[in-house]
Design a protein that fits this description.
Elements lengths: L3 H23 L5 H4 L10 H24 L4 H8 L17 H17 L2 H25 L5 H38 L2 H23 L6 H25 L18
Length: 259
């Protein structure tokens, strides 16, 4: 029986495989090349095709793992452990999950990156990979016990030491790359104005969140997602616009000739 979690993994693997085929064909690959992973012809751009093909293999592999583990259901684990399945506590349904919209956002970046810059394409793949790992761990933790609070602690103990440094590095790298594309496409005077506006927006958002200690978590997540979408959008626009022409300095006048 195909479980709910395996359906998502198989779907992710299928989409990644089809995307790898399309990417290979549109970057110079021959007809049978992407289909046979390069055995019967070229696959086009090796980096992009390799990343997408690897994502497809990982998705299919995790789908079979999810079927074998029965989505980490408490009753299935109790049956494997040889304990009484009647004593398994009822698992409380999980709350709102932010991973589906993040997965859609990563897929959108992959599509945009195919027609704009390679860095956007790579960031889309990174986001999809993060969603894949996070969603898997979240599903496992939600079915670990019958107590939602204990499940949350289990999940945080496993993922927080990894999430915080990785998230900080990704956020800084994304902001640096996106805003650098914008600054390189503007004149020096416009760059200063844009930098002041960006810093003012960040400071104003920080004051807004700090002044409301009881603000809803959904509002904070919505603000962060909106800012991320805006940053990536302006980065894509700046990348499409290209870099401005460097102003060549005027040659210095010759004051004299050495005899």
């Amino acid at each position: 029986m195909i479980t709910s979690g395996s359906k998502w993994f198989f779907g992710f693997g299928a989409v990644s495989f089809v995307t790898a085929l399309v990417y290979g064909w549109t970057t110079g690959g021959k007809w049978y090349g992407p289909l046979t992973a390069g055995y019967r012809g070229p696959v086009g751009d090796h980096l992009g095709y390799g990343l997408l093909a690897t994502a497809a293999l990982i998705g299919f592999f995790l789908g079979f793992v999810s079927i074998a583990m029965r989505d980490a259901e408490a009753e299935a684990l109790a049956w494997v452990a040889g304990t009484d399945t009647a004593s398994v506590p009822e698992v409380t349904p999980v709350g709102t999950s932010y991973w589906p919209p993040l997965a859609a956002f990563g897929a959108a970046l992959v599509v945009v990156g195919l027609v704009s810059e390679a860095v956007v394409f790579v960031f889309g793949l990174i986001i999809l990979g993060i969603v894949l790992v996070e969603w898997t761990v979240q599903t496992w933790a939600d079915h670990a016990t019958g107590d939602p609070e204990v499940n949350r602690q289990i999940r945080n103990r496993v993922m927080n030491p990894i999430e915080f440094p990785v998230a900080a590095a990704l956020v800084l790298a994304t902001l640096a790359i996106c805003f650098s594309r914008v600054f390189l496409s503007l004149t020096p005077h416009q760059t200063v104005i844009a930098g002041v506006c960006v810093l003012g927006t960040i400071v104003a958002g920080g004051f807004f969140v700090a002044s409301r200690p009881h603000i809803s978590k959904n509002v904070v997540v919505g603000l962060l997602v909106a800012f991320a979408v805006l940053a990536i959008a302006v980065g894509v626009i700046g990348g499409i616009a290209g870099q401005r022409d460097a102003e060549s300095p005027a040659p210095a006048p010759i004051s004299g000739v050495v005899q």
